[in-house]
Amino acid sequence: MRLIGVVSTIILARLLTPQDFGVVAVAMILVGLFEMLNLTGQSAAIVRHDAPTREHYDSAWTVTLLIGIAIAVAILIAAPFTELYFHEPRAIPVMQCLAFRAVLGGLENIGTVDFSRELRFDRFFIYNVLTKILQFVLTVVLAIMLHSYWALVIGILAGQVSRTILSYVMSPFRPRLSFARTREIWGFSIWTFARSVAMYLQTQVDNIAIGGIAGSAMMGRYTVAKDIAASPTQEIMNPMVAALFPVMSKCRQNPVELRQLYLRMLGWSAIVCLSTGVGVAMVAQDLVAVVLGPKWTDATPLVVWMALNAATAAVLSGTPTLLDVKGMPAMGARIQWSRFAVFTAVVFIVAWTTRSVMAVVETRLIVSALFIPSVIFAVQRATGVPARDYWTAMWRPCAAAAAMALAIFALNAVLPFTGAGRMVLDILVGAATYAGAVLALWHLSGRPEGAEADILTLCRRVHVRLMALRLPQTADEKRA
Fold this sequence. Notes:
Elements: H1 2-15, H2 18-35, H3 42-48, H4 54-78, H5 82-86, H6 91-106, H7 114-117, H8 121-146, H9 150-170, H10 182-213, H11 216-250, H12 255-282, H13 284-292, H14 300-314, H15 319-325, H16 329-354, H17 357-383, H18 387-414, H19 420-444, H20 451-470, H21 475-479
């Protein structure tokens, strides 16, 4: 599903201009700021509930729908004031059109939450992929026909329409208006909402700051660079985290098992984030030239820093889930709001003092890195997971990432060519170096339980299945 989004961005970057992306990005900043009010965590409250009734589902759907309507009204009222800060009048009609996405989102069938609650990730996959495919096809076709940012706008709305319709096709549940369990659901979801708001605002602070100091063209380059740089990390981590909550909820009464699951997730996060973040940063020059084309060359240094920031920010992405499962969503909210407050103050000071986009990007990475120790300390006090366990889970991927960076740097120093050929060689050499270093360090550490052991187990299972396909079956085996 996420690969479709990446391919869509690559194709659209060649069909549309940075200004087109910039107009939609400006509109989406304010639309997203309002839509975050719907991140109230009703679905998470139902997933976590031991035995939710129909009243729980109906109450969650009713609140979501009413919030969606209120968001749409707020966007329509605020749209004309967009030009005062961003100086982009074309964003006003875009916002007015996108206001209806909030209503459509509020109408989604709450019954689809059972896909996660029952660990039916096959249904979850189909539900999301079909929507993404329709949006991708329609947006690309419109971009070819219109060569305008309206292709992006219509594609966004079409994606939400298809998602809402599909939610009723795939789930037999039919919601109805009810407020019977609103108070109970909000007792948990209000803190999830507070944390979600802080997380979203943190992702938009740099966009808001840059929107005030740069034009729509730079905003477009920044948005696309951010998408390309962060996608490999986020698009692997997001599904993992989505699967983590319902699985952790099943074992929340067993502290030992819950802790082991969290540390296992931490090891996986480190392996994924460091390999993708450092890998994208090392091939950024060829990546931009080959994937986006010459009109996006100025985005190359942005991709480098944003890839590293995406890896740093996502490495502890399983922590809020642990706090939610342990019944401490308030702590997760406080951590995110503290990070948001510090990040906002620093980014706006840097942006309006230097008026440099690169300075903002570098500041993002520095703040994200400096905040990791404080998060580890807070989680240690709340859950009893010691700091040394974090180090045990992450030091091998860190060392392997450094080895990969050195290998790619040395290779590029001797290669006489650039472009697609060099990028492919960098990826192959980098992947081999990273995998070899991780496994070698794991063996030297005594082969502890963790992500590396999981990877080897998965490889063995794949090998067994491939061998079973290749080996001829006997007559008795065929009859069996």
